[in-house]
Design brief:
By secondary structure, chain A is α/β, with parallel strands linked by helices. Chain A has 5 helices and 5 strands, in the order βαβαβαβαβα. In chain B, α2 packs across α3, α4 crosses α10 and α12 packs antiparallel against α13. About 5% of the residues of chain B have low confidence. Classes of the chains: A alpha/beta (133), B alpha/beta (331).
Chain lengths: 133, 331
């Protein structure tokens, strides 16, 4: 019997200490039947990429409230791709100014969730991307 | 298909992907396990178990760091957390306490969800460990689900089992109950900077003094598979060690005890014997699963449902239902 699960890494890159949002999303994904690897606060892009590799995740969710997303997010994506994980999806949650969204999308971010996003939206997007994982 | 040479020559992406296949019990995962079996059996498998919130992950992190820095050996960590019985989802949070190991190519950490197993491990943990063993890691540290009293599967898998306690474990009667304390090769009192550490140490030591005779006389009642091993095992008295993992206190002593336990197992022949026991268990386990699968193919689901209905209606007992299901399938 095969028992496939969608594996998601939820990480907080950078130095802000607000992890309520990350935990709410982690919990919602758990309740949707996914396996969520939670790595905690103050992760460097290198740490996140290493964890994503070792855990062989399908999705990485980055929670950032510090404003450093234009530096940290592309760095994470570059490292993940360099590790050979081409198909891993990366989404971002947090306070992202409107004008930065195209830049992140161009860097390879698949979705950006601002304040007020229902968790069901995050869950549904992942299910849509990985229908049978 | 997975490139097994890549796995055994240190390609971490190939290793990570293979572990997923093994965890999902896919065809290629099963084939890889078959192929890698002959290359396994070299690593020292160390189990770390104990109730939730004893800072097991912090301890595992410290042990791994010490093994890297002082012994210069490589370490893989398999950390298991529970799956939700309702949704099948899981939060795997053991890495939060292992950040000191980041960036070290001699360390590989993998989190696993228990996926419905109740013995403190996942069903495929043994397979995951076998792959890491074949990949060449010297030590494999296996951290169980936060365990209560009877999650003792780890003792079947690991060569050396560390049971982690913390001050305030309850009164002496808790210490003499059957179960998790019996499987300890090494007892660690973590958070030993908290009040009550000395009392906990006393209670555990007193229990070990009692335990000696019990093991000698009542082998048959033992929960863990018991063989002649128990006779020889009694000349190993589990050390009781105090640590404060968050401050790296007491770690060298634990590593020293692990090494001493390995020497002891090798000297007495128990190393090979535990390996045989474990493999015997695994064969039985897999045989059961295979037989059930064969049986399921043979019995039409309407038959199964109709027998079930009779049970629901209290017309047929559970035992009689089993009899009829099994007999029909072989007629």
């Amino acid at each position: 019997m095969t028992d496939k699960k969608i594996r998601v890494l939820i990480a907080k890159p950078g130095l802000d200490g607000h992890d309520r949002g990350a935990k709410v999303v982690a919990r919602a994904l758990r309740d949707a039947g996914m396996e969520v690897i939670y790595t905690g606060l103050r992760q460097s892009p290198e740490m996140i990429a290493e964890a994503a590799l070792q855990e062989d995740v399908n999705v990485i969710g980055l929670s950032i409230l510090s404003g450093a997303h234009l530096v940290l997010v592309p760095k994470v994506i570059d490292l993940v791709r360099a590790n050979g994980q081409k198909e891993v999806k990366v989404f971002v949650g947090g306070i992202i100014p409107e004008e930065d969204i195209p830049l992140l999308t161009e860097a390879g971010v698949s979705a950006i969730y601002g304040p007020g996003t229902p968790t069901t939206k995050v869950v549904q997007d992942i299910f849509d991307t990985f229908p049978s994982a | 298909m997975i490139n097994l040479d890549a796995v055994t020559s240190g390609n971490r992406l190939a290793l990570a992907r293979l572990l997923t296949e093994v965890e999902n019990e896919t065809q290629s995962g099963v084939q890889a396990l078959d192929a890698l079996f002959v290359r396994s059996g070299r690593a020292h498998l160390v189990g770390i178990t104990g109730a939730p919130a004893k800072r097991k992950s912090s301890l595992v992190s410290c042990l791994a760091k010490h093994i890297r820095d002082e012994l210069n050996n490589t370490v893989a960590i398999v950390a298991i957390d529970p799956s939700s019985p309702f949704t099948g989802g899981a939060i795997l949070g053991d890495r939060v306490r292992m950040r000191d190991l980041a960036g070290d190519p001699g360390v590989f950490i993998r989190s696993m969800a228990s996926r419905g197993e109740l013995g403190g491990l996942a069903r495929t943990t043994a397979g995951v460990v076998q792959v890491l063993d074949a990949a060449g890691f010297d030590f494999i540290l296996i951290e169980t689900v936060g365990a209560g009293q009877s999650e003792v599967d780890i003792a079947r898998l690991a060569h050396s089992t560390i049971v982690v306690e913390a001050p305030g474990l309850g009164d002496d009667i808790q210490a003499i109950k059957a179960g998790i304390l019996e499987i300890a090769d090494i007892l660690v009192i973590n958070k030993a900077d908290l009040p009550g550490a000395d009392n906990t140490e006393r209670a555990l030591r007193a229990n070990l003094d009692l335990g000696y005779n019990v093991r000698m006389n009542h082998n048959a009642a033992h929960a863990v598979t018991v063989t002649e091993e128990e006779e020889t095992r009694s000349d190993w008295t589990p050390p009781v060690l105090k640590t404060v993992a968050t401050q790296h206190i007491g770690i060298p002593e634990v590593i020293e005890a692990i090494s001493r336990h390995r020497d002891y197992l090798k000297k007495t022949g128990l190393w090979a014997q535990r390996d045989r026991e474990r493999l015997r268990n695994e064969v039985v386990h897999l045989l059961q699963a295979a037989l059930v699968k064969r049986w399921q193919v043979k019995v039409p689901s309407q038959k199964f449902e109709s027998v079930l209905q009779e049970v629901f209606d209290r017309r047929v007992s559970l035992g009689a239902a089993i009899d009829s299901l099994i007999n029909d399938s072989y007629n």
